[in-house]
Amino acid sequence: MKKVVSxxxxxxxxxxxxxCGGPKPTDSSTAPAASEPAKAPRxxxxxxxxxxxxxxxLGDLKFAEIVKEKTNGEIVIEVYNNAVLGDExxxxxxxxxxxxxxxxxxxxPLASINPIxxxxxxxxxxxxxxxxxxxxxGEIGEEFLxxxxxxxxxxxxxxxxGARNFYNSKREVKTVADLKGLKIRxxxxxxxxxxxxxxxxxxxxxxxxxxxxxxxxxxxxxxENNWPSYMSQSHNEVAPYFTVDxxxxxxxxxxxxxxxxNSFSTDEQKIIKEAALEAAKFQRxxxxxxxxxxxxxxVEKGVTVTYLSPEIFQQFVDAVQPIYSDSEYTKYxxxxxxxxxxx
Length: 343
Ligand code: GTR
What we know:
Number of strands: 11
CATH superfamily: Bacterial extracellular solute-binding protein, family 7
Largest sheet: 5 strands, mixed
Number of domains: 1
CATH topology: D-Maltodextrin-Binding Protein, domain 2
CATH architecture: 3-Layer(aba) Sandwich
Shape: globular
CATH class: Alpha Beta
Strand order of the largest sheet: 2-1-3-10-4
Bound molecules: beta-D-galactopyranuronic acid
Order of helices and strands: HEHEHEHHHEEEHEHEHEEHHEHHHH
Radius of gyration: 21 Å
């Protein structure tokens, strides 16, 4: 009897899901293609965990729009943002398997399948944003985009995700010492754990969508991220102390599943690559605009924002240096030196 009930329940659920049609993409494709597609459109899914209007989501939509236009509507990429296709870890696995076709994600979540990604998010690695994009837009960036093909993923272009900073619910962090003992949520990588530990904090790996309640319930006392993530997730409501320490940049990219990529003709691949590059340009401008906007909003909403003097900033830089001589990361010394030498 139990079995019958459970079969009926499953059927009912399947019916409801198919009636609702499952997760819906963000509307990028209401505009008709320039001309009617010669063939039936091929439809692909792109996953992103950010909300509508977030710079990466706008970049994804721009990418989809250009691809649709340039292929006369034959290739349609639907953007599923807000993590509707699952949290980042799950969505990456699904993209590797080909259930999701494209994904926008950063170096830290990718490090678990391709540890060399750690090299790009080493603490205080880049002199500034310009240095970071010189690296990413040059030969090193291209090497990283193609470094995951054996894992089923090919990177297409680099998006901006700014610098990551600490924030917490307890106190203003004005020096490294103020971080001591604070339970800080990190992305699930050893590098981010080591980074927080080197500064005296207590790292706690946790999924992105659990941070708000984690801080609220006291399971963690803070986290670290860029301005758009901090504000768009309303973390300012539970962790109103934000220190602009810029401890790392963890660049983000659009990736495609390699089988999906190989199913495209050479001309289509060219269009898709160019569209990803063009969308990245658009996304980076949007990033700069929104980053400033969110910082302003944070101040207006009463966040205590702490900027560091050059001396204190140097304290942070000095404190993380042991990571560079840790055998876990010395294996990336060559690439790290190449990055540092990009002028
Ligand atoms: C954001 C990034 C997200 C996610 C998040 C996190 O900056 O854009 O994709 O990785 O950080 O901390 O989990």
